[in-house]
Design goal:
- By secondary structure, the chain is mainly β.
- The termini are far apart.
- The chain is globular and about 40 Å long.
- It has strands at residues 2-6, 9-12, 17-24, 32-38, 45-50, 56-58, 66-71, 76-81, 90-97, 102-104, 108-113.
- Strand 5 (45-50) and strand 6 (56-58) form a beta hairpin.
Length: 114
């Protein structure tokens, strides 16, 4: 199983980025897909989830700014991040979640300057 995250970078506050996570080696449509992030010196936190059925949920700090979506044909999950803030700076990780079984991607760094 491989999860390849991409799309991170250095942007100014207020900008947008779209993260992608391409999955292979698993039945993608059978997994809830999650985005986590870990800021320097902080614990990893769950940012957004898209379920097998397509329902979504977000941590309060990103509601209204981030959108998670999935493409079961391309086996890819996306995180559209708008109105980025310096506090969004973190390494972002995708995770495939089948309840008792998880697979992690390698992370992509997002840096938001003020």
């Amino acid at each position: 199983v491989q999860l390849q995250a991409s799309g991170g970078g250095l942007v100014q506050a207020g900008a947008s980025l779209r993260l992608s996570c391409a999955a292979s080696g698993l039945t993608f449509s059978s997994y809830d897909m999650d985005w986590f992030r870990q800021a320097p010196g902080k614990e990893r936190e769950l940012v957004a989830v898209v379920s097998v059925a397509g329902s979504t949920s977000y941590v309060d700090s990103v509601k209204g700014r981030f959108t998670i979506s999935r493409d079961n044909v391309r086996n890819t999950v996306y995180l559209q991040m708008n109105s980025l803030k310096p506090e969004d700076t973190a390494v972002y990780y995708c995770r495939a979640d089948a309840g008792r079984r998880y697979y992690w991607g390698q992370g992509t760094l997002v840096t938001v300057s003020s």
